[in-house]
Amino acid sequence: MPAGTVLAGVSMGAGVIGDLLADRRDTAGVLLVHGIAEIPASARAGLPVQLHVADPDAFAPPAAVAAWESAATDAGAVVQVFTYPGVGHFYTDATLHEHDEEATALTWHRSMDFLRHL
């Protein structure tokens, strides 16, 4: 994959990123929505990573997010974490009862800004 590639994962798909990242050190950045992924110690220094999760989220509880952020930073990644209080796990899915229009709009705005600056 070209160096400009961004690895993006949604919910369970976020977990795949950790497996891919170990072999793709030149990736331009990592975007995670609704889930966390291991950032391997072999990640390149300065790797931009952005995370968007509900707060609280049963699949990414606050303590797990804090531990993940610390580990990702220790691995050399430059991490941005955005949490969305009071929304459900899949708050961006308009077909689900947990959908939150305001949090969804903010997530996509922040994500697009992240991608534009890579």
Automatic annotation (TrEMBL):
GO terms for molecular function: hydrolase activity. Gene3D superfamilies: alpha/beta hydrolase. It holds the Pfam family DLH. It comes from the Bacteria. Residues 8-117 form the Dienelactone hydrolase domain. The keyword NAD does not apply. Keywords: Hydrolase. InterPro entries: AB_hydrolase_fold, Dienelactn_hydro, Dienelactone_hydrolase-like. This is Dienelactone hydrolase family protein. It comes from Sphaerisporangium rhizosphaerae. The keyword Hydrolase applies.
